[in-house]
Amino acid sequence: xxxxxxxxxxxxxxxxxxxxxxxxxxxxxxxxxxxxxxxxxxxxxxxxxxxxxxxxxxxxxxxxxxxxxxxxxxxxxxxxxxxxxxxxxxxxxxxxxxxxxxxxxxxxxxxxxxxxxxxxxxxxxxxxxxxxxxxxxxxxxxxxxxxxxxxxxxxxxxxxxxxxxxxxxxxxxxxxxxxxxxxxxxxx
Length: 188
Hints:
Elements: H1 16-22, E1 28-31, E2 37-43, H2 44-51, H3 59-70, E3 81-85, H4 96-103, E4 109-111, E5 116-118, H5 129-134, E6 139-141, E7 148-156, H6 160-171, E8 175-184
Parallel strand pairs: 2-8, 3-4, 3-7, 7-8
Antiparallel strand pairs: 1-2, 5-6
């Protein structure tokens, strides 16, 4: 097969040269107004072509690579901490946020699949802030209470999704220690 990025022959969809060149994580923290600290590993424009594969059949494989490469920057957690993927709905064949949460297992996080779902099924992709504010996700949480957790998502733009998820989890006694996202749109 050929590398999706450079088109060289490769045993993987992203060759080792491209992984080394494009996927060196540089964690940065963005603090939301709610106090939630969001750790991003890349600027959005650095990995945009890889992120957009979530809409393609082979996206699950690319997201596994992204999780593996990004989370190399993490250390092992010392306490029981759950990883809650944001709206891990597999209706498109797989859930990219579930893949990311599963990638955190090697660092001691316990994925909590299928517990935080948006009731509003509108697509927020490319929509302006006003649209997002007028159409909240309306999350439903069905997981355990009184736990330590991190939120997991692929991209942060305005931060509204993570703020809304944070609020819902607080209502259920979840101590949210932070959030991990692959990319931040506002990161320079």
